[in-house]
Write a structure and sequence with these properties.
By secondary structure, the protein is an all-alpha fold. 80% of the residues lie in helices and 0% in strands. The protein is built from 8 helices and no strands. The chain has helices at residues 9-30, 37-55, 59-83, 85-92, 98-107, 111-143, 151-191, 195-198. Helix 1 runs antiparallel to helix 2 (37-55) and helix 3 packs across helix 4.
Length: 203
């Protein structure tokens, strides 16, 4: 609505729209939250969206920006599995009691099978992220038809954010949950540790 020439116009409307999530992220960091990779990625992503609109770049750039985050995370996960194996365990430790799991696996002499199972699920998650990235790219290319820097583009981009909840965010949540549950189920079979003990409880 604000993109109309009689109001803010496409340029200022896009700047205002991007200002809110950017300010929210910066405010959250100012409250003492540690600067993480995802925080930096979110801030940079918002700035890139603004640059794409301001510079009048093609919709392919927008589609690439929206999909590349999934490809980067997937590639980082694959690299970690080969060169930084402990990074995977540290990441899983946020939701899984890895100390208990490894102790139980060693006691039952199934450590190699446990690592193989975790690796398999990690590769599955990396592949799933790549699929989500491709879907995000296709949805953006198909839905965005207006040139960047116009009021029509701003409207379509706002609608695309809502549409992405159905085609990207929801499948991502369902898929990630399914992979986690399959991972935990495999750990339970290998170690004998119950699911409620494997998953960390929020304090």
């Amino acid at each position: 609505i604000l993109s109309a020439e009689s109001l803010l116009g496409p340029l200022w409307a896009m700047l205002v729209a991007l200002l809110f999530p950017l300010a929210l992220e910066i405010y959250s960091l100012s409250l003492g939250r540690k600067l993480s990779f995802m925080s930096v990625f979110a801030i940079v992503g918002i700035l890139i969206i603004g640059a794409i609109s301001l510079l009048g770049l093609s919709r392919e750039w927008l589609a690439l920006r929206r999909s590349v985050v999934y490809a980067v995370v997937a590639l980082g996960l694959i690299i970690a599995l080969h060169f930084k194996r402990d990074f995977v365990d540290r990441s899983l430790a946020k939701v899984v009691n890895m100390d208990l799991v490894h102790a139980a696996a060693q006691q039952k002499h199934v450590e190699k099978h446990l690592i193989r199972h975790i690796n398999k699920m990690s590769y599955a998650f990396a592949g799933f992220l790549l699929v989500i990235g491709i879907v995000s790219y296709i949805v953006t290319i198909v839905f965005i038809t207006a040139p960047t820097g116009t009021s029509e583009f701003n409207v379509q981009y706002a609608e695309l954010r809502v549409l992405s909840l159905l085609f990207v965010t929801l499948p991502l949540l369902v898929g990630a949950t399914g992979i986690l549950l399959y991972l935990v189920s495999g750990i339970e079979k290998l170690t004998g540790v119950k699911t409620e003990e494997i998953l960390k409880k929020k304090e």
